């Protein structure tokens, strides 16, 4: 009988040890599964999000919906050209609808070693406006997207911490090095392990509350490149949401560098704004 009790105790103890060890084993397996460093994960996410191909073009449509359900449309074309791989880069955004923003042009000369150069041309005022570095995290033409969301945030501006590795995603916490120039305390990105596209990004305030969120709703493969087709940004403080939809994206079309100069603010390159370029 004593032998039986001893055997039962040993089995119970073994089960307890196994139960305690399982979470540790799972964590170890997840850590082992992530052979990439957090810096490599962020680099890949930045590249696939903003540096796909050598250049690109896409039609885009934003629908801004406030908390009362009122809607505003923004329709435009985005042109992009990389100067260096994961380095300097140019963007040109030309608006076509509605009539009150038609002809508005946003130009970005993006730099990795200094502040980006950003300009906005307002045709109604015939005004070229330089966007200061301090304004990059302000509303992009009245939407819930920021200027920085359009051309991308330099990964070197944040410290990155890999919080978790799941079966499908890398969960990364990003904390700004200079908190004086941003409105968030940190943000957490859910990065798809297969495509390296950030599928959700949640921005937290100093109280540890989520006040802003980006969600990717649809991804398609274009020329072998995983491409975001639909996304949205929600402002949880105001209750407004902006939906973004990309149409007819195309890569490696040979956009010339002179498209991305101040001359294009008043005279956008019509030959590169037509969808037939694809």
Would you kindly provide a written description of the structure presented here, covering whatever features stand out?
- The protein has a 13-stranded antiparallel sheet.
- It is globular, with a radius of gyration of 23 Å.
- It has two domains: 1-33; 38-277, Clam (outer membrane lipoprotein receptor (LolB), chain A), CATH 2.50.20.
- The longest helix is centred in the N-terminal third of the chain and has 32 residues, at 2-33.
- It is built from four helices and 13 strands.
- It has 278 residues and is an alpha+beta fold.
- The model is unreliable at 11-18 and 20-32 (pLDDT under 50).
- It has helices at residues 2-33, 38-50, 147-151, 263-266, and strands at 55-65, 71-82, 89-97, 105-110, 117-122, 127-131, 158-165, 169-176, 186-192, 198-204, 210-222, 225-235, 240-251.
- The termini are far apart.
- Helix content is 19%, strand content 41%.
- 24% of the residues are buried.
